[in-house]
Write a structure and sequence with these properties.
By secondary structure, this protein is an alpha/beta fold. It contains 7 helices and 5 strands; from the N terminus they run βααβααβααβαβ. The protein has helices at 6-13, 19-29, 38-46, 51-62, 72-88, 96-107, 117-125, and strands spanning 2-4, 34-37, 65-67, 111-113, 130-131. It is an enzyme of class 3 (hydrolase).
Length: 137
């Protein structure tokens, strides 16, 4: 099962030919299961170019499977700890939200499909984070 990060949705909607966007197209075309988080949902909606696009995205993504922290307080603490562990290794994670998304992927044993270098850094520090590889041309 895949967790699709905001970065991949952006690539797909902007018709960028990236490996992760190609992989998402395959998942969608073959109706393979995937999910998102509430934060990913919000980030994608915030990128809508018009009211019409917003409503379309809200309806489509709102009907998908959502993954949530398994334990709200513990999950957020673990996400923060992941950020701290990176910082102690000299790695600056640009987005604290990425730490939470990574934590949710770990908790649900999901492959995280992304196009964001933060996750590469996080996976080096936390081996439980499993990243999906995009498709090459």
């Amino acid at each position: 099962m895949y967790l699709i990060d905001t970065s991949v949705w952006i690539d797909l909607f902007r018709q960028r030919d990236t490996g992760p966007a190609r992989m998402l197209r395959v998942l969608l075309d073959q109706r393979l299961p995937y999910g998102i988080t509430g934060v990913i949902y919000q980030e994608v909606l915030q990128g809508a170019n018009s009211e019409r696009d917003f409503k379309h995205l809200r309806n489509y993504l709102g009907s998908q499977r959502f993954y949530h922290p398994t334990d709200f307080v513990r999950s957020h603490a673990e996400a923060a700890h992941l950020y701290v562990r990176c910082r102690h290794q000299g790695i600056t994670v640009r987005s604290t939200i990425d730490c939470l998304i990574a934590r949710i992927a770990i908790e649900h044993k999901l492959l995280l499909l992304h196009n964001d270098n933060d996750y590469l850094h996080l996976a080096r520090i936390e081996p439980q984070l499993k990243l999906a590889r995009g498709l090459t041309p």
